[in-house]
Specification:
The structure holds two protein chains of two kinds. By secondary structure, chain A is mostly beta strands. Chain A has strands spanning about 5, 10, 20-25, 35-40, 45-50, 60, 70-75, 80-85, 90-100, 105, 110-115. Classes of the chains: A mainly beta, B mainly beta.
Chain lengths: ~120, ~110
């Protein structure tokens, strides 16, 4: 069974860059047909941030597009999220998930990130 | 702005049946929206129960089923168990646009 694990700082200062990495085990990130995705959850609810395909093609939420970069390292079986110029509104639990054409199957356990000085 | 709407809360008795729904502000939900349903318990990550309207994962209990009902996506729990008390979220895919989650339904088993 595929497992995903998020890692990264739990506290980021306002205006700085939030950086998270997702390590995938139990399967290859280079397998076609899957979209390696970041989702976040704050009190308002769940929000799809974006995804990357193993080839490197990406999709970003239009509301975050100007601040987001998702990258992939197939040699390490990892993909990463960078969110620039963060504010308190970016405080959330961040999940990495494996998605495909019509849904999501596996979720990471989530990592809580607080934006605060 | 497109909004996906779920019942904020529902209560069901153990052993009973309950249906949660997921509506789109754009109109009727069809299979082309590939409705997904997730269960989240306190302190845990969401877990996918249903994908593509009615398909179950290997870990999805048989008492959960997905369908389309009256222009909405629906999740039905039959023979509810105490451990089914959780928050349930739906997800709709809007073609080339941003996938959207519903606001969640808090299900109480009482």
């Amino acid at each position: 069974q595929v497992q995903l694990q998020e890692s990264g700082p739990g506290l980021v200062k306002p205006s700085q860059t939030l950086s998270l990495t997702c390590t995938v085990s139990g399967g290859s990130i280079s397998t076609g047909g899957y979209y390696w995705t970041w989702i976040r959850q704050h009190p308002k609810g769940l929000e799809w941030i974006g995804y990357i395909y193993y080839s490197g093609s990406t999709y970003y939420n239009p509301s975050l597009k100007s601040r987001v970069t998702i990258s992939i390292d197939t040699s390490k079986n990892q993909f990463s999220l960078k969110l620039r110029s963060v504010t308190a509104a970016d405080t959330a639990v961040y999940y990495c998930v494996r998605a495909y054409g019509s849904g999501i199957d596996f979720w990471g356990q989530g990592t809580r990130v607080m934006v605060s000085s | 702005q497109t909004v996906v709407t779920q019942e904020p809360s529902l209560t069901v008795s153990p052993g009973g049946t309950v249906t949660l729904t997921c509506a789109s502000s754009t109109g009727a939900v069809t299979s082309g929206y590939y409705p997904n349903w997730f269960q989240q318990k306190p302190g845990q990550a969401p877990r996918t129960l249903i994908y593509n309207t009615s398909n179950k994962h290997s870990w999805t209990p048989a008492r959960f089923s997905g369908s389309l009902l009256g222009g909405k996506a629906a999740l039905t729990l039959s023979g509810v168990q105490p451990e089914d008390e959780a928050e349930y979220y739906c997800l709709l895919y809007y073609g080339g646009a941003q996938p959207l989650f519903g606001g969640g339904t808090k299900l109480t088993v009482l």
